[in-house]
Amino acid sequence: KFSCECEHNTCGESCDRCCPGYHQQAWMAGTFHARHICEKCNCHGKAEECHFNQTVADLSLSLDIHGQRRGGGVCVGCRDYTAGINCETCIPGFYRPAGVSADEDNPCIPCSCDLRGSASQSCVPNSNQATSSQPPGSCWCKEGFGGLLCDRCAVGYMGFPFCQPCNCSIDGSTNKDPCVTPCVCKENVEGENCDRCKVGFYNLQRYNQRGCEKCSCMGVSSHCTESSWTY
Question: Residue limits of the Laminin EGF-like domain (predicted)?
Fold first, then answer.
């Protein structure tokens, strides 16, 4: 019985398949005129196995070893709390800090969300999913809570870890700290807590310097309310 000496990262008695970890491109038999080299998947050193997925290839979701979105290799069994097509992100509850490469050893570290204020134990997993206000490792807070770890009250709330609304409306008052009374209302706002528009005004908004907009009732009425109608 003869056996083939496989080349180009192929395996099997007849060299009829790609070796484990070399499925970035779909299997294709070579010919006398053209060889087909099985390409290694890019798992950032966190997995040895992968498989080819045509949908991943069609959507250009897989990163090859040359840094190009080419091929459909999907890593299997990512280690060190990593996850993703290329083991490039972290499992829920872990994150990769800004400046840490996916190629580094143990790139993912535990999230530190305060569960009293955080909506979950998960946090922003890496720089690709971060924003200017939510860097990697920052948590998603419940209403009334703030801070990168949801470990304090948001503006307009007081009494951590309960974080109840402050007396002064952050929409209608000019108080720098809405938890310090008395409440000072914007020009078109009234009420002890500055939480309602004056007669003849409507649509209380936080970023309106006067608080509310003037009604336009053609002199027929001085009262108006918000409407979803468009003209």
Answer: 111-165, 166-214
Of the pLDDT bands very low, low, confident and very high (cuts 50, 70, 90), residue 230 is low
Q: Which two tokens stand for residue 15?
A: 């060299």
Percent of the chain clearing pLDDT 90 (strictly above) = 80
DSSP class of 128: G
In the three-class reduction of DSSP (H, G, I as helix; E, B as strand; rest coil), residue 56 is classed as helix
**Which tokens is 180 given?**
């310090």
Location of structure tokens 């087909």: 36
Please name the CATH architecture into which domain 166-212 falls.
Answer: Beta Complex (2.170)
- Name the β-bridge partners of 197: 189
User: Are both 111-158 and 166-212 of the same fold?
Assistant: no
pLDDT class for 46, splitting at 50, 70, 90? very high
Does the domain formed by 1-86 have CATH 2.170.300.10? yes
Give the number of other Cβ atoms within 10 Å of residue 146's Cβ: 18
Strand partners for 52: 73
Residues 9 and 195: their CA atoms lie apart, in Å, by: 70
Q: What DSSP designation does 57 have?
A: H
Domain 111-158 has CATH 3.40.50.720: no
User: 219: how many CB neighbours lie within 10 A of its CB?
Assistant: 6
Give the residue from 61, 137, 70 showing the smallest Cα distance to 98. 137
1 or 222, which is more confident = 222
What is the distance between the terminal CA atoms of the chain, rounded to a whole angstrom? 85
Question: 123 and 148 in contact (C-beta within 8 Å)?
Answer: no
Domain boundaries, the chain: 1-86, 111-158, 166-212
